[in-house]
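Allow me, if you will, to draw on your knowledge of protein folds for a short while. I have a record of one protein: its chain in single-letter code and its fold written as discrete structure tokens. The full record is reproduced below for your convenience:
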Amino acid sequence: MYRLRAATEADRDWLYELNRAAMRDYVVATWGEWNETFQRERFASSFAPERFQVIVVDGLDVGLLQVTRDAERIRLAEIELLPEHQSRGIGSEVIRDLIEEARAAALPLELQVLKVNPARALYERLGFAVYDETDTHHLMRAHPRPEPTSEGASQ
């Protein structure tokens, strides 16, 4: 079981380290290198704590979540877990909750994943399918089906 808490300015360094731990290998596999200066500047220029939630398990900060919502879709912009907390079902649980939110809102849930990132298999198991791609990313979408209604059932 996880909980989410709002990220704060005090999380800045930890969130950068999380990003490096979770994404460095995929960045290197995609672009050939991890340029620390570039990555730090990119992170600093786009860091806005109000956009992030920290994933907490058993009192420990283990990951981050960024979700955007509009009238047409819910977008899982980022989910990252520390490597030692991956493959434990945490990400699946978070994403299943987002799928339920999308189902309740009758909206698709969208994300993008680096082509080299094995998380694509997880997303496919959870019902996402590739609908487009770029040179580096698969764009994926889940169309949550509405829960069946029980018309005519007595209340």
